[in-house]
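Contributing new records

If you add data, match the layout below exactly. Sequence lines come first and carry their own label; structure lines follow with theirs. Keep one chain per record. Anything else will be rejected by the validation script.
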Amino acid sequence: MPTTIQPDLAFILFLPAFCIVGTLYCCYPRKPRHALRWIADLLVLVLAAGASVAAMRWGFRVASSVGGALWKQVLATLLAFAFFFGIVGAAAVVRARLLRRAVDLRARAW
């Protein structure tokens, strides 16, 4: 395997899983749908993907050679997953609270 692709292998292999989770994050909840929400969702996904790649490359560089070449890929994969799902999960919680607050404000206005 070319050494230039090894640091990015974890992200390439798990890109379909990240795409599925990103699609689910953007699609649910179905309402409200407005431009600001789409922009915020896309920014969260770009941030999560960027942080995932950065963490994966860092993990690949700092992994010790105690476990062999496989340990570098394992650590890189764990960090990529942790950062991606951590950021998307935190953003989902924040978005749920903001949407709940917006619904409460509309209910009070009536």
